Amino acid sequence: MASWLTALERLAHAREKAGLTRALRPRSADDPVVDLAGNDYLGLAVHPAVVASAGRALVAYGLGATGSRLVRGSTDAHAGLERDLADWLGTESALVFSSGYLANLGAVRALAQYGTLVVSDRYNHASLIDGCRTSGTEVVVAPHADPVGVAEILDGHPGRPAVVVTESIFSVDGDLAPLAALHEVTTARGALLLVDDAHAVGILGPQGAGGVAAAGLAGAPDVVVTATMSKSLGGAGGVVAGPQQLVRHLVDTGRTFIYDTALPPAVAAGVHEALRVARAADDRRALLRSRAALTMSRLSAAGLRVSDPAAAVLSVWAPGPEAALTWAADCRDRGVAVGCFRPPSTPDGSSRLRLTLNAGVSAEDFERALDVIVECAP
Predict the structure, then answer these.
(1) Are 133 and 109 in contact (CB under 8 A)?
(2) At residue 249, does pLDDT exceed 70?
(3) Residue 70 DSSP class
């Protein structure tokens, strides 16, 4: 019995030496830290209308959904949210999952039928990578954001059904995939394009409809969109949006949908209200654009290497994992929360701070946070 625990201790010690340990840090409801680490881009998690809508549904439905979507977990709150998600994203249908992670697993596995070639961007999120790994079909990793590289891979497998998997805004550095060019490649070769729009929904496109809409691809029959409602919409849950036949297939066969307890109705109702607010939030989107430009300018002027933000995510490189940990901890000690990304979360093996901008942070706090990041830099 003790041998396996000893083995785990050895692994923990090795991670500690490499600067790769992680820790849970519970926060209180009145946590005063300036948040540049969470994903509440539009500041809707605490929006009064969003909280009120969730509260009404909590009283009406109770705490949980009480079952999977196919048993007792589907409610009016879920159905209304799905209708408006499809309308917002410009797709025929949408299906809500309990998390974005499960939505991505479900979408990849649904599209990767027997014999399908899956082409996955090198920088894709872990949920997409895990979907590819569990798909049971051949997966080829493509160079990052490289339509020519994707074309070469597809041309090397003529006649194969294929799915190209990418994010729109990549979750570590915040760069934008060349979606229009990728779609030209996939359309010309009869392949499907699966886009995880998690970090672009609410930020890019008309009414914040996302990167796919911004690229003019909303509703394209060979494009499938996934997203999470835990970022710009300030809640939880995931969605797969596309043709009605795909949603029907997921309802009938999607294991991460069928065998999972449904998203709580109160969360679905709160997210639905957040969606309505987000569609009209051009002022918040404009604020995020200006803050992204200011952040890059200020940190670059201080001699820091910063990614060029396409939306509300950007990275600041650190000398190594331990330096990144210390930098993030020093910022936190001075009242600023920043993300700390180290291998294996970073696809290129480099460590960095990840900053996620929040329209709900006051101008004074935001300016102070940038000063703290610069002053704490290693």
Answers:
(1) no
(2) yes
(3) I
